[in-house]
Structures are given as structure tokens and as C-alpha cells.
Design a protein that fits this description.
FAD/NAD(P)-binding domain; 16 helices; 8-stranded mixed beta sheet; single chain; 22 strands; D-Amino Acid Oxidase, Chain A, domain 2; alpha/beta; globular
């Protein structure tokens, strides 16, 4: 089909793709299609018009490496991001301490990571993307309200849009729902899957640099000196039982502050207004709350029961749900942009196959299964740990474990787009299955460990998860983007990474035994090697589950054991 001009929409017109919703997901998909499928005619619709406000437009300012790679290199925003937004100083966590903020165990980095990520002012970013999309020749209607989507079976879909004071009808071979939490297609087709456990969030933006560096007196020179860059540049997490509080910097010199909590531990009505949020922070994060009078309040917003999934997000009937119109993973690891990158990449592939008359039900099933499994597994894994967010020792080890998983499986797939090829994904499935089983066992281990040892005898002052963990750093660097890498090279790297994951599981298991079940350490001798698919803190099950019958050959764990043990010290009594 040929491109259509904006003026011609007064009469019914047809497009290859109509994207309903011009937020971050819809804008980036439109730009990706214009770059990778230039022959495809696209109409983008959004209810908002320019200019969008800086600082207070939308939540979701933090990216991690995969999402940042998508924006910088797939969408082509690298130069813009470097000039206009803030390079991120990684994720940073401060765990509870009764001795003041300077004594809170800190898990972060001292300097910027080998791969870049960014803190993004959503208003500035989306204004820029709107200009790029409009200049690319894509038809873009702002101040346009989608009133109805009539999904066709084999016939084109119809989109009824209110624009310039009247309703207009547009035909589409593909319709993409990117209208956020309106979740139009999900509601229409009864596809919504809500989270059974309730997690809520309230957030606000303040004018100025609200930094954790200001929580600690300048006289604490060693605390300030251990991080070379301003901690304000990190996505800072203030951790407590059942919650975390974020502090995220914006290029507009403002700061985003948010409370995220499990409703069963911190009911939403305790912090769902700004005055209540301040009272809640006064109880749980007094160092932060004590600084707020210095900064003007810019806005206050909230989500109740924020995370959800779907039964389906892609269809052989040529529709897709992207961004928050599809799923919303827990924001703890700043994975929202990753999920946009995955869903947009798969949507682009579906459209490409369809226009070439190569789209199959098998590929659509692959795309749904891959994307929804990733979202649901991420959210489930994250939310199971809220109950022990205050346990610095266990949470540090769980975070290290999660980074091993993310940096060796999920992130490289996005870099190489191997996840979009079902034959290649199937070839990797046996390796990934080993990780999936180990992940579930390790999550149960962390939960049982936290229940058995709510006050571990071990702690730490500061862990730099790059420089203090050379094995993890090696995995990270080895899996940085390399578009020239072949599938054989990628699978070899994945196989080696899975071996490192298996070794880490062994080491963490024995650290848990030392802390929670020291009387059982003698069961394993001097050179233990176990079956990680049978890991647990239940000695009565070990023999039955096959813990002492490993499925792989023993390897020397002493170097990794030393690497991790050096991070921690015994608490003074």
C-alpha cells in the first residue's frame, strides 16, 4: 500500500498498520517500522498533543542496558540520549540499618557500567520522538481519541477516531493497541490476567536534585569517597520489609520519588495521597522525608495493583498489544523499556512475515509464549522477595543471582534478536530449561532462608557489583552487543554462562547452609558438588529429591567461593 497524507483521512482510507497510542511504545514502534519496513504504510494516533510537559508527564524514567540499547541503536537515538538525558550510574540499593544512613549496606557501582543506560525525562523524550515520527513521513494524528476498534477476521480492521471535532473511519490490515492501561483489545476480547497478589505505587516529582549524597554528612569522608560519581545519577532504591522507594534523576534537574509496596504489608491507603506519603516516609525513610521541605512539589500520582499480564498479546488475526496495553512487569529492576523492546521487536517481525505472506500460527504462538513467559517470570520472581527486602545479606546474593540470569540469557537475546527466530530459540531451549528449573529452586531457597534467618549473622558495608565481582563482570562484558556474532558463537557463550550460573547456585546454597543450617554442613564433605535442581533448605528431602546425585561433573568452586565470601563480614555482637 502507498503512504497516505494526513489530509486524505476525511474519507475512509487504508493503512498496513494503525498504531493506537503515541506513548513510548507506540512512538518507538512507529519509528522502528519506518526504519526496518519502509514500504509499510503506518498511521499513528494519540489523544495528547504537543508540547508534552517536562518532568511530570509519565512514570518510567529509568532504563537498564537492554532497553537503553534498543533506544540508542535500534531506534537510532544514541546521539540524542547522550546530549539530552542522563547516563545512569546503575541500580543502587540501600538496606535498613538502625545506625543512620551512612551505615546502611549499599549495593551499587562506584563508576559507570561497561554498557550504557539512561535516566530519561519522559516528556522531553516523547516530544522528540513525536518530531522524528512526524518528520519521517508517517501519518501522525495528535489530539485524536480512538473511540472504537472493530476487529475484522479476514477483512481489514476498522478504527473509529475522533479528530478535529468529528469521527473518522480508518481501515487497517494490522491494528496495534498501544493505549496503555486502557487495554482496549484485552478488555474487548476478555484477555486480561490480573496479578493475584496486590502491589501498589505512589510517586511524585520534586524540583531540584534530591540526592542520597545529602543524607550523609560531609564529615563521613570514607562513605562519600567510595563512589566516584554522584549517587544522584543512579536509580536509588531505599529498601525495607515489603517495600522499596525509588529516587531517579531527570535531565530537567528534577527528581522522581516513588513508593512501591506489597499491599499485604503496607496497605495502599497509608500513602495514596501526598500528605499520607510524607507521613509514611517519616516512619519508614526519615532521612528522605526530612529533605522534602527543601524541594517544591511538581506532581503526585499513583497506581493501585499496578502489575498485570494477558492471556495473549499477538494474534494471527493481525493485531498486537504493546507497552502497557499488553503487560506491566514489576518495575523493581527497571525492565519496562526491555519489555517495550521485546514486544516491539516481535510485532515488527509479525508484520514483516505477514506482508511477505509467511505468517504462521506457530510463529504467533512462539511470540506469545516467549513474551508472556518473560513478563510473568520476571514479575513473579521480583514480587516473591518483597517480604525480605530488609534482609541485606540474602537480598545482595539474590540480586547477584538475578544479574547472572539477566546478563547471560535475557539481555544477549535482545542484543542479537535471536529470540525472534523460533528455530534458534528451540535450539537453546534445553539450556534455558536448566536455568528455569534452577531459578525456581533458588527462589524457594531465598524465601526459606529469609524465614529461617530473618537476622543473618553476616552483612556488608558496600558491594560494587562490577569491580568486586570479576566473574559477573566477565559475563557482562562478554555478552555486550556484537551484531557480527554467529548463532554458534552465541550458543557457545550461553553454554558457558549456564555453567557459571550452575556454579553460583552451588556456592549460594552452601552460604545458606552455613547461615541457616550450620549443623548440616558436614553432610557435604570438603569438595561438595550437588544437583542444583534439588536445592532446598529441607534436609529431610535432600535424598529423595536427588540433591546428592548431580547431573553435571564436579568443578572447582574455590575461586568463586572466595569472590563471594570476601564481600561479607560477620556482624559485631
Amino acid at each position: 500500500m502507498s503512504k497516505n497524507t494526513a489530509e486524505s483521512i476525511d474519507i475512509p482510507v487504508a493503512y498496513d498498520v494503525v498504531i493506537c497510542g503515541g506513548g513510548l511504545a507506540g512512538l518507538t514502534l512507529a519509528r522502528q517500522l519506518s526504519h526496518q519496513l519502509p514500504e509499510c504504510s503506518v498511521l499513528l494516533l494519540d489523544r495528547l498533543g504537543r508540547p508534552l510537559p517536562d518532568a511530570t508527564l509519565k512514570v518510567g524514567e529509568s532504563t537498564i542496558e537492554s532497553g537503553a540499547y534498543y533506544y540508542a541503536h535500534i531506534i537510532g537515538l544514541e546521539e540524542y540520549l547522550e546530549k539530552t538525558h542522563l547516563e545512569k550510574l546503575g541500580l543502587r540499593y540501600f538496606y535498613r540499618s538502625s545506625r543512620g544512613f551512612a551505615h546502611r549496606p549499599e549495593f551499587g557501582v562506584a563508576d559507570f557500567l561497561p554498557a550504557k543506560s539512561y535516566q530519561m525525562d519522559r516528556g522531553r523524550l516523547e516530544n522528540h520522538l513525536r518530531e522524528l515520527v512526524a518528520d519521517s513521513g508517517i501519518d501522525f494524528f495528535e489530539d485524536a481519541r480512538v473511540r472504537e476498534i472493530k476487529l475484522g477476521d479476514n477483512a481489514p480492521h476498522q478504527v473509529i477516531v475522533r479528530h478535529n471535532g468529528r469521527d473518522r473511519r480508518v481501515y487497517a490490515r494490522w491494528v496495534v493497541d498501544a493505549m496503555g492501561r486502557r487495554r482496549y483489545i484485552q478488555r474487548r476480547l476478555n484477555l486480561r490476567r490480573e496479578n493475584s497478589a496486590v502491589f501498589n505505587s505512589a510517586w511524585f516529582r520534586v524540583g531540584g536534585r534530591l540526592s542520597v549524597d545529602d543524607f550523609v554528612p560531609s564529615s563521613e569522608t570514607s562513605w562519600h569517597a567510595r563512589v566516584q560519581q554522584p549517587r544522584w545519577l543512579s536509580t536509588n532504591h531505599l529498601m525495607g520489609r515489603g517495600y522499596w522507594v525509588w529516587l531517579i534523576p531527570l535531565s530537567s534537574e528534577n527528581t522522581s520519588v516513588g513508593i512501591v509496596a506489597a499491599d499485604a504489608i503496607h496497605p495502599f491507603n497509608q500513602y495514596n495521597t501526598f500528605d499520607k506519603a510524607r507521613a509514611w516516609l517519616r516512619r519508614h525513610e526519615p532521612a528522605l522525608e526530612g529533605e522534602l521541605d527543601r524541594y517544591p512539589l511538581l506532581d503526585f500520582k499513583k497506581y493501585k495493583n499496578y502489575s498485570y499480564s494477558s492471556k495473549q498479546v499477538f494474534s494471527t488475526q493481525r493485531w498486537a498489544c504493546i507497552g502497557e496495553a499488553g503487560v506491566f512487569a514489576d518495575p523493581y529492576y527497571s525492565v519496562g523499556s526491555n519489555m517495550i523492546a521485546f514486544s516491539n521487536g516481535l510485532t515488527r517481525k509479525l508484520i514483516e512475515f505477514d506482508l511477505a505472506d509467511q505468517l504462521t500460527p506457530e510463529y504467533v504462538d512462539h511470540a506469545n509464549r516467549l513474551f508472556l513467559t518473560l513478563n510473568d517470570t520476571l514479575t513473579h520472581n521480583i514480587q516473591r522477595s518483597y517480604a525480605f527486602h530488609d534482609n541485606a545479606y540474602i537480598m545482595a546474593l539474590k540480586t547477584i543471582w538475578d544479574y547472572y540470569i539477566g546478563w547471560t540469557t535475557t539481555d544477549p537475546q535482545l542484543y542479537h534478536e535471536i529470540y525472534m527466530e523460533p528455530k534458534q530459540s528451540k535450539a537453546m531451549s534445553d539450556l534455558i530449561a536448566r536455568v528455569v528449573v534452577a531459578q525456581e529452586r533458588m527462589m524457594r531457597l531465598f524465601e526459606d532462608w529469609a524465614a529461617a534467618s530473618p537476622e543473618p549473622r553476616t552483612c556488608f558495608a558496600f558491594i560494587d557489583y562490577i569491580e568486586d565481582l570479576p566473574t559477573l563482570k566477565g559475563l557482562f562484558v562478554r555478552n555486550l552487543p556484537d551484531q557480527a556474532a554467529t548463532f554458534r558463537q552465541f550458543t557457545r557463550q550461553l553454554r558457558e554462562s549456564v555453567a557459571r550460573i550452575e556454579e553460583l547456585a552451588q556456592v549460594i546454597f552452601f552460604m545458606a547452609i552455613e547461615d541457616a543450617l550450620p549443623e548440616h554442613r558436614e553432610y557435604f564433605g570438603n569438595s561438595p558438588w550437588i544437583n542444583i535442581e534439588a536445592i532446598s533448605l529441607h534436609p529431610d528431602r535432600w535424598e529423595r529429591d536427588g540433591l546428592f546425585r548431580p547431573k553435571t561433573g564436579a568443578r572447582d568452586l574455590r575461586e568463586l567461593q572466595g569472590e563471594l565470601s570476601r564481600l561479607f563480614v560477620a556482624k559485631s555482637r
